[in-house]
Amino acid sequence: MTVYEIDGNVYINLTNRCSNRCVFCVRTTSDRYKEYDLWLKKEPTAEEVKEELKKHDGGREYVFCGYGEPLEALDVMTEVAEELKRRGKRVRLNTNGQADLIIGEGVAGKLKGKIDEVSISLNAPDAAEYNKICRCEFGEEGFYSMLRFAKECKNEGINVKFSVVNIPGFDIKSAQKISEETGIPLRIRELIK
Ligand code: SF4
User: Fold this and answer.
1) Residues 31-80: pLDDT tens digits?
2) Ligand 1 atom index nearest CA of 134
3) The pTM of the whole model exceeds 0.90
4) Which of 72, 94, 132, 182 minimizes the number of CB atoms within 10 Å of its CB?
């Protein structure tokens, strides 16, 4: 399923691909999220997503998010986001932030004016812990890429936030320190089961 609604928000699922294999990812424990089967048999085109969105015109917010990593489908995402902004919608991206490793440089600039808010999974206080939790295909470099992308989004004037999942033993204080040092707010969210 590509487009679905939860609590008045519209969620857009573009791909199964992700450069992480997070230990807490809902994909590792379930084939579904709530009642929705989110494993895609085929990635949608921008036209297909736009057509599907016509059935979901009243959303409070439009969110590009999992099952996979939306940046893996950057071209489709930006085309759909452009259309949503033309229609006056508020648009958010939930991402692992590894933009320059997945795509290359300059992704934040491509999002400017199309994405109102970028929520980046911080997930860990340092690169080694990040790689333990996120099992990134790029190794510890994934952590540094995520931090670079967060700063680039901020520099582009995009509203950016870090999010962390409150898993047992997580070092919230260190995450808060990164948040303070970068000037990027931190949101602590509960584990999705
Ligand atoms: S980054 Fe998101 S979609 Fe990818 S493995 Fe982690 S929780 Fe799952």
Assistant:
1) 677 788 889 999 999 999 999 999 999 999 999 998 899 999 999 999 99
2) 6
3) yes
4) 132
